[in-house]
Amino acid sequence: MKLSPTQRAYIAGFLDGDGSVYVRAKPNDSYRYGYQIAPSIVLFQSSKSKEALKRLHAMLQLGYIRERNDGILELIINKVAEIQEFIVIAKPFSLFKKKQLALMEKIIEAKKKIKNECDFQAMLKLVDIYRVLNYSKKRKIRP
Amino acid sequence: MKLSPTQRAYIAGFLDGDGSVYVRAKPNDSYRYGYQIAPSIVLFQSSKSKEALKRLHAMLQLGYIRERNDGILELIINKVAEIQEFIVIAKPFSLFKKKQLALMEKIIEAKKKIKNECDFQAMLKLVDIYRVLNYSKKRKIRP
């Protein structure tokens, strides 16, 4: 572990405050079972905080920064090996998103072991749990 | 300090991800210089995360939780002594809001020393700096 406990706790706090943990099942016929399974962990900030987000990115050394058309910056982690590394870093310290991180671990494991359509459907059931965990009425406009 | 370094770093991360640090100067004739000076530190979450926010509040032991009409929960710290305690806790670990926290410290000190209209105007100038520090185009709707 290249990060100190306080760095790991900081990252978990940042994720809990403003991060997103989810897996999307995107219909796509070029995949064997008709879906692309796309896990991702995203940290958000306004474009105002680009320098600070770059420092966070340099500390974390995972994912990449993308600027959306609406000016929101996203630090996106969507490679499986990097997601697994992020989970090891942040899960022990997270108060708000431990379940989402644990579910993502479980889905990644299940995906690796898929042998048939039935295994795939079982994994899709796990993906569906995010709808319950992440549903939120949160909408806000910052000053 | 009743909090561990990892707890302090977590709180700083949470603030950086989704918190707000500002001082409002509200016009109010019942105050000597025509304004009420209201500093506040607010941490936001969706109502979905009430239990986790309560745990964060229990850890922090500062401020109070308020539920807005739109379902957003706010952990609000607006007593000067509590704000000062929060600054001691979080400032060393904050990557994104160190300037806002340092400015708040400065305003609180300046406010204590006000002797006349001129001192008051100088403090108002400090409050104005938040407009620059906090201005953000960030608007978002969560999934």
What distinguishing features does this structure have?
disordered C terminus; four-stranded antiparallel beta sheet; alpha+beta; 48% helix; 24% strand; 5 helices; 143 residues; homodimer
Can you offer a commentary on this structure?
The structure is a homodimer of 143-residue chains. Chain A is α+β, with helices and mostly antiparallel strands and 143 residues long. Chain A is 48% helix and 24% strand. Chain A has five helices and five strands; from the N terminus they run H-E-E-H-E-E-H-H-H-E. The first copy, chain A, has helices at 5-18, 50-60, 80-90, 98-112, 117-134, and strands at 19-27, 35-46, 64-67, 72-77, 139-141. In chain A, strands 1-2-4-3 form a four-stranded antiparallel beta sheet. In chain A, a hairpin with a 4-residue loop joins strand 3 and strand 4 (72-77). In chain A, helix 4 (98-112) packs antiparallel against helix 5. Chain A is globular, with a radius of gyration of 16 Å. Residues 137-143 of chain A have low confidence and may be disordered. Chains A and B meet through helix 1, strand 1, strand 2, helix 2 and strand 5 of A and helix 1, strand 1, strand 2, helix 2 and strand 5 of B.
